[in-house]
Specification:
The complex is a heterotrimer of chains A (185), B (174) and C (663).
Chain A lengths: L14 H27 L13 H11 L18 H15 L4 H12 L14 H32 L5 H18 L2
Chain B lengths: L2 H8 L2 H9 L21 E3 L5 E3 L8 E6 L6 H16 L5 E6 L4 H11 L5 E3 L4 H5 L7 E5 L5 E6 L4 H13 L2
Parallel strand pairs in B: 3-4, 4-5
Antiparallel strand pairs in B: 1-2, 3-6, 6-7
Helix pairs in contact in B: 3-6
Chain C lengths: L1 H29 L2 H30 L6 H6 L6 H6 L5 H23 L5 H27 L25 H15 L1 H13 L5 H31 L10 H26 L3 H24 L13 H27 L11 H33 L7 H21 L10 H24 L5 H32 L3 H11 L1 H25 L2 E7 L4 E4 L2 E12 L4 E11 L2 E6 L2 E4 L7 E3 L1 E3 L4 E10 L6 E9 L2 H18 L2 H15 L1
The chains are: A mainly alpha (185), B alpha/beta (174), C alpha+beta (663).
């Protein structure tokens, strides 16, 4: 198929240019990092609030509530929903947590009253393993397929090129050398 | 075209069939896991009365109805039915209890007065009873038999036929 | 009168469309140029008729002609004019009419853009392209004529309408559906070309080349629609989020995923003549997913915020979907022998492989989202019980795939076509990798410990590094060899290799959006508290003081709001007034969100509940760090696409004229 472009043309040759390149990259990285680090540091440490009744409890309630479906909304979790019933559910979750129940027990309670529908992600058992496992299985199968296809196409590519006549190859090399010599750069 | 190739378009058919099945289902309906199981206990503070608990009603068939004054028009449509059924069967031992959920006392009492409810009604502070019964909307009605099991759950307003049939069923079954 | 006229217009349009499709196909088969010309005229007439129907319905809406049921359901006498106009697509019938109008418009644009230009191969395809486009229109016109007529009458004529859903009476309603529908309908054109190529049995690369810009523009509208929808959702719905993996949101996301995969894999087909079958399948799947999406919205089989379904519409959509799938895949199977590529790869380590992996990951995400969306239905069919698949599931499975996609976004543009040598890899990737490692280390040292966030940032730094590296190196080379200044070189580079650099800018936009998504979800803070007047709630550096409740009448509703004063680190920020809107026809109030939006973080406040006497209010405060970066990323994507699709010839003409004048 003739000569193919391989990668990029080397940018200049002098050492000064290369050092300049590093400096530029360093500058750009710094420019990106400074605002990002300010933002990373500045917001209060996540989840630990001062002056609240029980900040840790708030978070625990929210963790459990975010796994339960608000049954009077469309597709919102009990944690996110602004509805009254969701608020009462959050209060109930808080009470149950204060009584010492574990998140699993609380979720099981809601399931016993509303059915599995109230869980926002299907429990990993039985038929539901399909929805958890199929995506990864499909990806794996796909990845194998891509690999095999790529391999087949690569072999085809290597086979397609006929063996080069050595005399011809020598002549090509000589002519290339002559060209490089005459053009000068 | 060989049959192997025909498989490609035919592979879409199961998906179409599944989606067609979807027409028979109602995405908003949540089937209750409590039917045929023991009814959760409750205690309510009846308006203008004492507190009432499910245990205290053991051995009696109970019609437990969840309503609210803001539930328009469904609760307004079924309210007369409830009162009528109560008056008809109370002498035969049927018990009817109304739970007013997420409502203001003032509005609840107004609702009761408007429909002349003579069966006990009370509020559900914190919606504990509602959640315990897996209530997700109003109105909902539970028909509890003498053994304390939930025989039937009605989501939405009751019709005369249904309330008659279900009330009779829990009354007559021994 | 309008009702009769409107109904008749649509009926006539149906006839004209059928004629256009038939004349196209027959004209092509018999080689009759006059029939082809006639069919093109019919396409134009079709467009005019549907435009007339739109005018009629808009006229009825603006003049509040309540003899039409649609006008009653989607407007009131009091509505502002622009919302009366937007009422056209407020519910089912009108949205179908809008879709059909866009479809007929696309057909006319296709004639205008492609008919006389291009090689003969293009001209051979055109009749079949039109036939397919008209065929799609036939379906939508059938829907309106026999199932959901926008011009249906109502009797007796009510004195006032019921009005649009209050959630829709906002400026966003004027923009979001139009963006989304344009994207959806836009994808029918590459689909039509693909089908035409299959029908004529000439599956070459020509149709890809001529539809390339079109596909990218359709993609842009779809992307814009999705971003805009998220932005609207965030500002209006009042739960502090922008994407809930609602089935209808997923339905817009899935064709976007396969559409993106398609845009990338066509580049391989153009260069190597490979992946023909795959690309045909991809574009068919994209279009099918568009139809699937509208099916979901209008059939009511899955509950959703967006669903507005009734009647036989669902069945008809399903039938159409079945037709599309069977027809397209049947054609592919039929022509599969002629489609076999003779492509070769030089090496597994190459850009071609990166693109193959890109397709794998994108289609993988699409498959996952699809599975999650229909799984409740599948579970109910097989086991009879109802389960739900919601946010936690989708987040869990899409995050790792998203990271893989990020990695590919960094590698793809810089790895060589053909064979990537070790030299090439080292030169192009060493610095960005080092930069990424350094950046991540800095974040770690400064306190970021969340593993997923660190990983996401590492990858984002890597991608940004590769993009900047590419721009800087290329600009410097050009400036060096051409003797131009840095800025001129940069500009010329953008204009000359539009596709490449536009694409890089789009990638940059995606990375910015991903940074926004990652940070705002990991570091989101929320607090809810009941306050009495004078009391304050402190979240992080912000303090919000509740001053009191107020209420007021608005033209269409009653607004109740809380007066809040916000301050940051003690410095006053201003007033916030979150509230609730009470509409006469609605049982529960709608949230009225107030927030201080800032590029670094948003202070988002909701009024959860209140005592009627104003003695207390429950306020929820959410801090969303860097969430604005998502919208900024969307804008950068838009800019990148504009750079990528600028028409070449006119610009080249201008620059050459400028050079000639300078000389």
């Amino acid at each position: 198929m003739g000569l193919r472009r391989r990668g990029r043309v080397a940018p200049g040759g002098t050492a000064a240019r290369r050092r300049g390149g590093w400096a530029l990259v360093a500058l750009v990285c710094a420019g990106l990092l400074i605002p990002l680090t300010i933002l990373a540091v500045a917001p209060s440490p996540p989840r630990a609030e001062a002056g609240s009744s029980s900040p840790d409890m708030d978070e625990r309630v929210r963790d459990v509530a975010s796994e339960l479906r608000c049954v009077v909304c469309q597709n919102l979790s009990v944690a996110d929903s602004p509805s009254d019933l969701a608020k009462e559910m959050r209060n109930l979750i808080r009470e149950l947590l204060q009584q010492g129940k574990t998140p699993e027990e609380i979720k099981a309670y809601f399931v016993s009253r509303y059915g599995e529908f109230v869980l926002l992600e299907p429990p990993k058992r039985g038929f539901n393993l399909l929805v958890w496992g199929l995506p990864f299985a499909a990806l794996l199968v796909g990845a194998c397929g891509v690999y095999l296809a790529a391999k087949r196409w690569t072999q085809r590519g290597h086979q397609a090129a006929p063996p080069l006549d050595p005399a011809y190859a020598e002549r090509v090399r000589r002519e290339l050398k002559e060209r490089e010599g005459s053009s000068g750069s | 075209m060989s049959w192997k190739k025909a498989l490609i378009p035919l592979a879409c058919v199961p998906l179409i069939v599944l989606l067609a099945y979807g027409f028979r289902t109602d995405p908003k309906a949540i089937p209750s896991p409590l039917v045929e199981k023991a009814a959760p206990g409750f205690r309510i503070a009846v308006y203008d009365g004492d507190s009432l608990s499910l245990e205290g009603l053991k051995g009696k068939p109970v019609v437990l109805n969840f309503w609210a004054s803001w539930c328009y028009p469904a609760c307004y449509e079924e309210a007369p039915l409830l009162e009528a059924t109560w008056r008809k069967y109370q002498n035969q031992g049927l018990m009817m209890v109304g739970v007013d959920i997420q409502d203001k006392e003032v509005d609840g009492r107004e609702f009761i007065a408007r429909f002349n409810f003579t069966f006990p009604n009370g509020p559900d502070p914190g919606s504990k009873i509602s959640i315990d019964y897996g209530v997700y909307g109003v109105p909902e009605t539970f028909f509890i038999d003498r053994q304390g099991r939930i025989a039937y759950k009605q989501v939405g307003a009751l019709s005369p036929d249904v309330i008659e049939e279900q009330a009779r069923a829990i009354l007559e079954e021994k | 009168m309008i009702a009769t006229l409107g109904g008749f217009t649509l009926f006539l349009a149906l006839g004209v469309t059928l004629y256009a499709a038939a004349a196209s196909v027959l004209g092509a088969r018999q080689g009759r140029e006059d029939w082809l010309a006639s069919s093109r005229n019919a396409v134009l007439a079709h467009f005019c008729l549907v435009t007339l129907a739109i005018f009629l319905l808009e006229y009825a809406l603006i003049t509040s002609d309540f003899s039409l049921r649609y006008v009653v359901n989607n407007s009131t006498r009091e509505s502002l004019t622009r919302y009366k106009i937007a009422g056209l697509w407020g519910s089912l019938e009108g949205s179908i009419l809008l879709w059909e109008w866009l479809q007929s418009l696309m057909a006319v644009l296709v004639i205008a853009r492609y008919s006389d230009r291009g090689p003969s191969g293009c001209r051979q395809l055109m009749p079949y392209v039109q036939a397919v486009l008209q065929g799609i229109s036939v379906f939508f016109l059938l829907l309106m004529t026999f199932a959901v007529n926008p011009f249906a009458r109502i009797f007796p004529i009510p004195p006032d309408g019921r009005g649009l859903n209050p959630l829709l009476e906002v400026t966003d309603m004027l923009i979001h559906p139009l963006l989304l529908y344009s994207g959806y309908v836009g994808f029918s054109v590459p689909y039509a070309f693909a089908m035409a190529a299959l029908i004529t049995g000439r599956p070459t690369e020509e149709w890809l080349r001529i539809t390339r810009r079109w596909t990218v523009v359709a993609w842009l509208f779809l992307t814009g629609g999705i971003f805009y929808g998220g932005w609207w959702s965030y500002r209006t719905l009042g739960w502090g989020g922008y994407w809930a993996w609602d089935p209808v949101e997923n339905a817009s996301f899935m064709p976007w995923l396969t559409g993106t995969a398609f845009i990338h894999s066509v580049m391989i087909q153009e260069r190597k003549r490979m992946l023909r079958v795959w690309n045909l399948v991809l574009v068919t799947v994209t279009f099918s997913l568009v139809i699937f999406g509208t099916f979901l919205t209008r059939s009511g089989i899955l509950g959703s915020v967006h669903a507005f379904a009734e009647g036989p519409v669902g069945v008809m959509f399903l039938a159409f979907l079945a037709l599309v799938l069977l027809f397209s895949f049947g054609l592919v199977a039929y022509r599969s022998d002629q489609l076999k590529g003779h492509g070769e790869l030089d090496s597994i380590v190459s850009r071609e492989s990166a693109f193959l992996l890109n397709n794998l990951v994108l289609v993988g995400i699409c498959f996952t989202v699809f599975l999650g969306t229909i799984f409740p239905l599948l579970s109910e069919a097989v086991r009879g019980n109802k389960i739900s698949v919601g946010m936690p599931y989708f987040n869990k499975v899409s995050v790792p795939l998203g990271m893989a996609l990020l990695l590919l976004m960094g590698i793809g543009p810089l790895i060589a076509w053909g064979r990537a040598s070790l030299n090439n890899l080292q030169r192009n990737f060493l610095k960005p990798i080092l930069g990424a490692a350094a950046g991540t280390a800095v974040l770690y040292v400064l306190g970021m410990r969340h593993v997923e966030a660190l990983a996401a940032f590492a990858l984002c730094f890597f991608v940004i590094g590769t993009i900047i590296f590419e721009f800087v190196v290329a600009t410097r080379t050009r400036a060096g060899t051409m003797g131009e200044t840095f800025l001129t070189a940069f500009g010329t580079l953008l204009l000359k290799s539009r596709r490449r650099y536009g694409g890089l800018i789009v990638h940059l936009g995606v990375v910015i959006a991903i940074i926004g998504i990652a940070v705002s979800s990991v570091y989101k803070v929320e607090r809810e508290q009941t306050l009495r007047p004078g009391e304050s709630l402190t979240v992080g550096r912000y303090t919000v003081r509740f001053d009191g409740m107020e209420a007021g009448e608005r033209p269409t509703h009653i607004l109740v709001w809380a007066n809040l004063t916000a301050s940051q680190d003690g410095k006053p920020l201003g007033e916030l007034t979150p509230g609730q809107r009470f509409y006469p026809n609605q049982q529960s109030p709608f949230a009225s969100v107030d927030a201080r939006y800032h590029w670094s973080e948003d202070l988002y406040v909701i009024l959860s509940s209140f005592e009627r006497d104003g003695s207390s209010a429950t306020i929820k405060v959410i801090i969303n760090p860097m969430i604005s970066w998502i919208w900024i990323g969307g804008v950068v994507i838009l800019l990148g696409v504009i750079v990528a699709v600028l028409p070449e010839r006119r610009l080249a003409l201008l620059t050459s004229r400028a050079k000639a004048q300078a000389a």
